Amino acid sequence: RPEFNPILTERFGSLSMGSLGSLAKTTAKQALIGAIALIAVEALPAQAEELKDWQYDEQTRSLTLTLPNSVVPQVSVIAPDQLVLELPNTQVGDVMGQPIRDGLVESIVLEQATPETVWVIMDFTAGTVLSASQTAMPLAETESGEQQWQVRPALVAASRRVAGQSVASAD
Question: Residue 134: is its pLDDT beyond 90?
């Protein structure tokens, strides 16, 4: 006759080996179903917030975004003359991109990269070289509780058109 673990015997009484095996299989199935359910819940997308507003100031060469407090933009240089702000847990909403053409920035495009991620792509004029290090700085909180962020692109060099001529400058 096999010996039983005293803790199991105390908890489950004098179950037969077949009963313990059946109990173990049932418990393992329940654990597996619970784990799958937990993974499925974690895999469901969170409700993405909407990008509320953005503005580009040609005088200061800065982009200001109004975002929910939970969204922190990530800034990356993806080409010498192209900058991307990644906005996690965000959808484009009713705002749109637009051409800028201020001599430095050619356009700002909003793209829904994934259902929960927006890319704000800043295209600069040919000859512009962006610094590899870019940041988004938090500004004031709005009255409705949203956070404003400002990106002022750091340049290594820029090529501007002045009176029809291309002029190189370092910023």
Answer: yes
DSSP string, 73-124: -EEEEEETTEEEEEEETEE-TT---EE--SSSEEEEEEEEEETTEEEEEEEE
> For residue 40, what pLDDT is reported?
41
Contact between 65 and 149 under an 8 Å Cβ cutoff? The reply is: yes
Range 138-147, long-range pairs (CB < 8 A, 24+ positions): 139/64, 141/69, 142/66, 145/69, 146/52, 146/66, 146/67, 146/68, 146/69, 147/66, 147/67, 147/68, 147/69, 147/71
Report the predicted TM-score, pTM, of the whole model to 2 decimal places: 0.66
Both tokens of 64, joined, read 């200001």
Structure confidence at residue 24 as a pLDDT band (50, 70, 90): low
159 in Cβ contact with 168 (< 8 Å): yes
Mean pLDDT over 90-111 rounds to 88
Instruction: With beta carbons less than 8 A apart as the criterion, state whether 151 and 85 touch.
Output: yes
